[in-house]
Write a structure and sequence with these properties.
Fumarase C, Chain B, domain 1, Fumarase C, Chain A, domain 2
Length: about 425
């Protein structure tokens, strides 16, 4: 019988037959998550085997055989030839079953000093570190794309809004620059999540360590973790917490993107008409022939709520559990993976959109026919001339019908304090992004 046909679970005992309903309920029917973990489990298992050799719990030739077979598993998996089966419960069991099939008793020794609990923890940490690095690169790429848009249309006037009403003159550059600065701040959250994931739980076992002489610092060094996660109980208690924190960092990115998406849905509407978008990025209606819908931004906007719900799943699963491992923690894998997929996909789609986004300058200029948008600027001018702001505010407010229209381009260029429309500091963003790249 091959490893992929193995019927008994690692924990099943002789003489005790498992009710099929138990397997059906507690074992995921979707092995996609475990498929994603396989390369990281192989990496951690190889490090564990080498460490067992260093402390004298495995012969050198057995270590070489195990590590070589693990590399074979990874290679077959990349080619689609190593398939996870429901009967073997999870990726960890599938790998061990293959090792036993290939190496006999030598394969059985790979599990010395560890549990599937610290196996999955370690694989998830390695997975998270890899995905956080990928996400960071996508954030920087998206920020650079949006920054290029801000630089191109730095002095293209657009109305600023408060309470969904015209407030003061703004610009396309100022609006896009806000997204860029948001993404730069979000990178700090991603790096905090990276730091928390950058600790090694391997060797913590089921939550109480091991009776064999493990060298946890050796596996930490080989796996390039920053440090050992020391307390075995806390290793288990941190599961769900760290996933929730990681999703929280991803949520910060999604909140920034979601705000931009919502703006774009509004700006693209006929009532606003502020932007032109390449037709290839819009969809149609099954009933109304004229429709050109910005569905990609509507879905992105909705996905902010999805990621928030995924965070809540991980954040609440550990509530009221006794310290140590509980099966409840199993469900934290998929929400984390889904959050990474959604965030990375959202970064890619918004980058694509900004590459094909143009302001409708004629429509934007029309909005400045309403001279009241310049009211605050007139009040500020009176302040510069010596009036108190309250007197200037009252005077302008009582004489709105006497205001003259201003040139909106000259208006936005004339404001020079840091962050104002005439001094967006876009070169500063470029410098920061270059350093982060």
């Amino acid at each position: 019988m091959s490893a992929n046909e193995k019927k008994n679970k690692l924990w099943e005992k002789a003489g005790a037959k498992l009710n099929p309903a138990v397997t059906q309920y507690i074992i995921s029917q979707n092995l996609e998550a475990d498929n994603k973990l396989l390369p990281f489990d192989v990496q951690a298992s190889s490090a564990h085997a080498r460490m067992l050799g260093e402390v004298g719990l495995l012969d050198k030739k057995d270590v070489e055989a195990i590590v070589s077979t693990l590399a074979e598993i990874k290679d077959k998996h990349e080619k689609g030839e190593f398939v996870l089966r429901q009967d073997n419960e999870d990726v960890h069991t599938e790998i061990e079953a293959y090792l036993v099939e290939k190496l006999g008793d030598v394969g059985k020794r790979v599990h010395v000093g560890r549990s599937r609990n610290d196996q999955v923890l370690t694989a998830m940490r390695l997975f998270s570190l890899s995905e956080l690095q990928k996400t960071e690169k996508l954030v920087i790429a998206a920020a650079n794309t949006i920054l290029a848009y801000a630089q191109k249309y730095e002095f293209t006037p657009m109305p600023g809004f408060t309470h969904m009403q015209h407030a003061m003159p703004s610009s396309m550059g100022q609006w896009a620059g806000a997204i860029v600065e948001g993404l730069i701040n979000d990178l700090s959250a991603l790096r905090a999540a990276y730091d928390l994931n950058n600790q090694n739980p391997l060797g913590s076992g089921s939550g109480f360590g091991s009776g064999v002489p493990l060298d946890r610092e050796a596996t930490t060094k080989e796996l390039n973790f920053d440090r050992v996660q020391i307390n075995p109980i806390y290793c288990q208690n941190s599961r769900g917490k760290l996933e929730a924190f990681t999703i929280s960092a991803l949520l910060q990115v999604m909140l920034t993107l979601g705000k931009a998406a919502n703006d774009l849905v509004i700006f693209y509407s006929q009532e606003f008409g502020f932007v032109k978008i390449d037709r290839s990025l819009t969809t149609g209606s099954s009933m109304m022939p004229q429709k050109r819908n910005l569905d990609i931004m509507e879905v992105l906007r909705a996905n902010v709520s999805v990621v928030q719900s995924l965070q809540m799943q991980c954040q609440t699963v550990g509530l009221n559990l006794i310290s140590g491992y509980n099966k409840d923690l199993k469900i934290t894998k998929k929400p984390l993976m889904d959050a990474f997929d959604i965030t990375q996909g959202s970064l890619e789609i918004i980058s694509l959109l900004f590459e094909h986004l143009e302001p409708n300058e004629e429509k934007l200029m029309e909005t400045f026919d309403d001279v009241e948008i310049f009211a605050t600027d007139y009040a500020n001018q009176l302040v510069v001339e010596g009036q108190s702001f309250r007197d200037a505010y009252r005077h302008v407010g009582e004489n709105l019908d006497k205001l003259d229209k201003q040139d909106p381009v000259e208006n936005i260029k004339g404001k020079t304090h840091i962050g104002s429309t005439g001094n967006l500091c876009l070169d500063h963003y470029k410098s920061v992004l270059d350093k982060l790249s």
